[in-house]
Design a protein that fits this description.
Length: 246
């Protein structure tokens, strides 16, 4: 019996060591893929902000994806996160955050948490991040993942982001991770003077990423590039439908 117990102990130890090595190798592969993505997909294509590049390097994107999609975490492509919903490709995520021009002391509002990846990127740079998700299942996953990764400066809310988060205004920056026909007025109202808002405007097949700057003379806008993001749900979708039916 003693020899059998010794043999079982040795086998269990070898199995544990094998699992640890496999986990370490997998982690090393993800780290290498992430470094390559930062170098060849982001820096090589014009992302210059050191804060954004550091954030992308720090955040394990694969942990914010469905297990079957983790192999695609560090490819520059949209990845499915739910039925008919995707998370934007890393370049788009990085570019939208770069446009916010965050310095580190800001309070940021994000509309469309998804599974939490961009909220984590924002949290690496900004002081406080308030993020709203309308899909209950995504909200639960994002909140849990952000908590597990110890992002204590991210505050999650389940609901329609069209009206923003009035009790926490003003926000120095607002990022909308979905598209609509026009920017919701409540979001512009909650934007602080000197603040920036980034959002895709247009139809599902014809969208432009727009940067809004709020100053003493009003809100100025600048078209940045073509994108394709999922449409805003909730009140924004209802307003678009009413316009179509007129």
């Amino acid at each position: 019996m003693r020899h059998q117990r010794c043999l079982l102990f040795v086998l269990a130890t070898l199995l544990l060591m094998g699992c640890q090595r496999e986990s370490g190798v997998r982690s090393d592969i993800y780290d290498l893929q992430r470094r390559n993505m930062v170098l060849w997909n982001l820096k090589a294509n014009g992302i210059e902000s050191k804060a954004v590049l550091s954030a992308v390097q720090a955040v394990p994107r694969h942990l914010f994806l469905l297990p079957e999609q983790r192999k695609n975490a560090y490819k520059d492509e949209d990845v499915p996160i739910a039925h008919f919903l995707t998370t934007p490709k890393p370049y788009v995520a990085a570019r939208t955050i770069e446009l916010l021009n965050l310095k580190g002391s800001e309070k940021v509002l994000e509309i469309g948490t998804g599974r939490g990846y961009q909220a984590a990127l924002l949290a690496e740079i900004a002081n406080e991040v308030y993020t709203i998700e309308i899909v209950p299942d995504l909200f639960k996953v994002a909140e849990r993942t952000l908590k597990e990764l110890n992002y204590k400066n991210v505050y999650c809310r389940l609901g329609d982001g069209y009206k923003g988060w009035p009790e926490k205004q003003p926000f120095n920056a607002i990022l909308v991770t979905a598209a609509a026909k026009e920017v919701p007025k409540p979001l512009l109202d909650q934007l602080a003077m000197g603040g920036r808002l980034v959002m895709a405007i247009g139809d599902p097949l014809d969208q432009s990423l727009i940067l809004y700057r709020k100053g003493p003379g009003g809100v100025k806008q600048e078209t940045i590039m073509s994108v394709r993001l999922p449409p805003m749900e909730g009140e924004a979708a209802g307003r678009a439908l009413r316009v179509i039916n007129k």
